[in-house]
């Protein structure tokens, strides 16, 4: 019997496959008819802010070679709506609930975290890496001092284990990883999208209304693998790896690079059963190579 | 799990060119659940792995008994170009049926307004509506599906140069030929939909518009295809998803960017 489970900061995961925030509807309702949500290691909820956010103007999506660029901009109905209306849906399923939180100021992040204290969510994912919001977002994630400070501040008000999601749009990601570890993060998730742009040469205009957006999909996987590998050699806290995972083999690559769990993002949009296909692929790999525990291959690359 | 839509492999029964760049493809899949409303669309998936995202294609006609779907689409990029090259007995990945559809309750005088490649989804609608249909179709140059539409109502055609039908646009035709209408159903380019919305408001006619926006997934997961829809809240609107909240919206609720 293969052991796919692990524990992060006291939270038990039955398997390593999670959803990447923002790629699974708001809370996963759209996927209920395609997969059994209880089979997931965790549902990572789309970014939630204190007040409802509109997100950016359309067009928000552009396809690129082996990837896509989005500038959705964290459209969401706010934390109170989440607690009132979405928690019931999530609690029906036997899986961990991780809430990605966003804000324009440190105080906003803290207030969202505070309001989640009395809920049954399992962990908070601090989004300091979204490239599509003007204030907050990536600004906190590209400066080590600010990343450490916001991690500390949110950690001081939350009673949930804290994951910090890192941006790849930095000179040295290990510096930011070290900073959030110092700030008290229990886990790191990485990578968020790479900043990209696409131009419609016939209209001579950027495709996205916002001009730039976040590049995701298999096109960014090698960058993500490299960064997970570097960070895993730098920090002691666990890493949830993501960036272009399309199948079980991709997930194994992340685990060998040092990830404890993996998150499936863009693949959900192409194939709504992608998470289950990734999980099956991991099991098949373990079976093929007679691996009984994923920890035996975790971080094996020097 | 309640499965209402599925990603399946469909077989191509026919794929023919209608006019320059516009193709009519008939696909069949026994696996599909035919709980269909006119205005809904399907996702077609490219075999080329470099093109990740599905292409949303509106449904032109349905044959529920034989589990066949007719899709009429325009070649606008690499994805649709690949679909245009599919031949009989080829297979394509398809997800159906997506989005909401048109309300079919009207029994009075129906006005159906289509523009260009927005015309095809209105054919199954025209077929299923009760009451009398007046159908206004506008094209830039080449016209298609006219004879099919004629089976289900009086058809008026406008083209930019007047080579087919009358010179002008669908609003010109409506001003000329509509005496009474209970409801308007429309699909086409944004400029035309804006004009239809204005026409409906001026004439106090209930209208439904099928919108188009760049989509990621087609089933509500990515929140990529937002449009502003009027709502009774502080801002007066809410960003809704064309793929699941639409593509059909009440015209009076659609807020086009001015």
UniProtKB/TrEMBL annotation, chain A:
User: What Enzyme Commission number(s) appear in the record?
Assistant: 1.3.-.-
Q: Annotated pathway, please?
A: Pyrimidine metabolism; UMP biosynthesis via de novo pathway; orotate from (S)-dihydroorotate (NAD(+) route): step 1/1
Q: Which InterPro entries match?
A: Aldolase_TIM, DHO_dehydrogenase, DHOD_1B, Dihydroorotate_DH_1, Dihydroorotate_DH_1_2, Dihydroorotate_DH_cat, Dihydroorotate_DH_CS, Dihydroorotate_DH_I
Residues that coordinate or bind FMN: 21, 46-47, 100, 127, 165, 191, 217, 243-244, 265-266
Q: Where is the Dihydroorotate dehydrogenase catalytic domain?
A: 5-286
Q: Which cofactor does it need?
A: FMN
Instruction: List keywords of the entry alphabetically.
Output: Cytoplasm, Flavoprotein, FMN, Oxidoreductase, Pyrimidine biosynthesis
The active site consists of 130
Catalytic activities: (S)-dihydroorotate + NAD(+) = orotate + NADH + H(+); (S)-dihydroorotate + A = orotate + AH2
Domain of life according to the entry: Bacteria
Keyword Cytoplasm among record annotations? yes
The entry marks the following residues as binding substrate, namely 46, 70-74, 127, 192-193
Molecular-function annotations in GO: dihydroorotate dehydrogenase (NAD+) activity
Q: Which PROSITE patterns match?
A: DHODEHASE_2
Localization in the cell:
Cytoplasm
Sorted alphabetically, which SUPFAM superfamilies does this protein's record hold?
Answer: FMN-linked oxidoreductases (SSF51395)
Question: In terms of one coarse class, where is the protein primarily found?
Answer: cytoplasm
| Note describing how the cofactor binds | Binds 1 FMN per subunit.
Q: NCBIfam families from the xrefs?
A: PRK07259.1, pyrD_sub1_fam
Q: What does this protein do?
A: Catalyzes the conversion of dihydroorotate to orotate with NAD(+) as electron acceptor.
Recorded family membership: Belongs to the dihydroorotate dehydrogenase family. Type 1 subfamily.
What is the official name of this protein in its record? Dihydroorotate dehydrogenase
Gene this protein is translated from: pyrD
UniProtKB/TrEMBL annotation, chain B:
Domain FAD-binding FR-type, chain residue ranges per copy: 5-104
- Could you confirm whether the keyword tRNA processing appears in this record? no
Q: Which residues bind FAD?
A: 55-58, 79-80
Coiled coil spans: none
PROSITE patterns from the UniProt entry:
FAD_FR
Signal peptide residues on this chain, from the entry's feature table: none
Q: Give the residues the record marks as binding [2Fe-2S] cluster.
A: 217, 222, 225, 243
- Paste the cofactor note: Binds 1 [2Fe-2S] cluster per subunit.
This one is known as Dihydroorotate dehydrogenase B (NAD(+)), electron transfer subunit
The gene designation is: pyrK
